Input
Amino acid sequence: MAEVILNAISKSFRNTLAVDGMSMVIPDGAFVVLLGPTGAGKTTTLRLISGLEKLDRGSISIGGRDVGSETPAQRDVAMVFQQYSLYPHLSVRENLAFPLRSPILKTPEDEIARKVQEIADILQIPHKLDNKATELSGGEMQRVSIGRALVRDPSIYLMDEPLSSLDAKLRADLRVELKRIHADLGSTLLYVTHDQIEAMTMASHVGVLQEGRLVQFGSPREIYENPASVYVASRLGLPRINVLPSQLFPGSHKGPQIGLRPENILQGDGAEARVVRAEHLGDQTRLHLDLQGHAVTTLADPHADYEANAPIKIRPQNPIYFDAAGTRVV
Amino acid sequence: MAKIVIKNVRKEFGDFVAVKESSFTIEDGEFFMLLGPSGCGKTTTLRMIAGLELPTSGEIFLDGEEISQKPPSERDIAFVFQMFALYPHMNVRRNISYPLVSQGVPRAQVRAKVGEVARILGIEDILDRPVGGLSGGDRQRVALGRAIVREPKAFMMDEPLGALDAEFREHMAEELRALHDRMGATTVYVTHDQLEAMQMGDKIVVMNNAVVEQFGTPQEIYDKPRTMFVADFIGSPSMNFMEFDGELGQGTTAVSLGGTEVAVPSLREGVAGKLVFGVRPEHIGFSDESGFRARVLATEYLGTTQIVTLESPSGELKARISSSETVRPNETVGLSFKSDAVTLFNQQTEQAIRSEKNEGVFANG
Output
């Protein structure tokens, strides 16, 4: 296990600057999630760390060692991809043992057996060890893929949207499981996703990427409660944060744009809005309002009735402010 | 505009029963969701309403007229498929015009109508563009335009957002719903995504294994599930089920769960044997006084709320509580259950047991 340091790394593909002078410290034992939309540079960052892509500029160190000239194998990283890639003709046991049989590692057989059993227990698939890989369900296959990374004891685990091809229920289960595995192993883990739920629920630290740059790094709670920009604020939270012209609400304001999470809009007095529609999601009701031509989403009591077009007064609670360019004003 | 009544409709494909006798009513102007896992019969039901499949038995009424054996062209229903197919060699205007032109509608009228539809969909500026270079969203709007230009009595939509990525999907869902609110046309919409169904629908039919499990408003289905399947399928995380043995008379207001007395809504029927105590994650609270103890396994931060996974004498539970509460893994906590939100089930039949809370849903069919 090791600390990983990215020092002003850049990478271009033809005319596209995929990673643009990014610096980041991934602390030893942390579960860091890189969050961003398609094209933000998440996967390229992962591939640069693993050595699958070569740096244009900057440096990467793993456990204090500059790895710029090392091959992927020498870097001692374990990677899990979005699409599970198992050897279909091998059993689960053989698939899990495969990385340990690498000529570089020279792991003794009894050690392999012990390790495979341990990982199978962690992933709750010990009863599947003698099945062929093709006899597994999608969720089991992805667990074996993750397991194949876990049997090794690398400096860092790199995971590229490993849950995105799974259905919602299984994804929820594996989120909890991955977090537990991370806690058990105490390993350093870098995980890439565009799914904010995964970022919020699993990460010890979230790195928010925008156009190849790291725009904020902190705990999920810090990012949610203290976003550095409109862009960051919009990445976490469902329904999304409302960003509105401040002068829609009476009183003095610290900036021209006001950011209000749906739960931070109080009803009863303040600016007059109109009900557009209530969405009953069961555990919560989302209330869509129109405030002088601006769409506003807030939360409401699941059992209250709201008529379309009914007037409703709203006021901000714990607002955060942004300047005209979307940068946070404190 | 149209009211659609489905009455004892059944569909067999050879030996396979795709839909067992199903009945429900779609009111005029409703946004109506057919929800269920793959293979449950929801798409077959939709195709029977549209006339793309003929029912083996049963009746379908469109505005009072029985249409179950009529060809699609005589039903005045527009179908929007998951993969929206546009004519690639035609521009946007001609794609939208096509259904009218092929019906022989006069040119001037077609032009006026297409203009109106383009305005509703906000695509006036792309009318003369070829469809080839359009973004996914615009393509979908054009496909919708082609469906609404005919002013059919009703729209059938088969997972129209299924192929889109999450962010865009959310946006299109809002747009579709807003379009419906402006036009007020009866819409029947198939999805396997429970959140989409809850979000967009006025009413939901939940299907499973070719059977209609429940039919009602989103909140009613969420609060008062009639079966364990519905309780589990709707809501995320899904409802917690805790098994217990009991012999409960009518009027029972408490049950024994892992040795602790727990209040439940007053029962309207007696029941004995293997039972299930169902409670949603947001209806579990932490309370030091409670004798029902559980150990915290994990917490998941979600911004406003957090999901806590717990190990209890009755199995693993998930609770949704405010993020402002501090919870540590491995600590033992007392749990309380919001009594008027609890549903009991018969484990054998998987049906909800009638109580003062849910008896209303047993009345409507």
In short: The first helix of chain B runs from residue 42 to 50. Chain B is about 25% helix and 35% strand. Chain B touches chain A at residues 165-167, 177, 181, 195, 198-200, 217-219, 222-223, 234-238, 280-282, 297-298, 300-304, 307, 309, 320, 323, 329 (CB under 8 Å). The two ends of chain B are 25 Å apart (CA to CA).
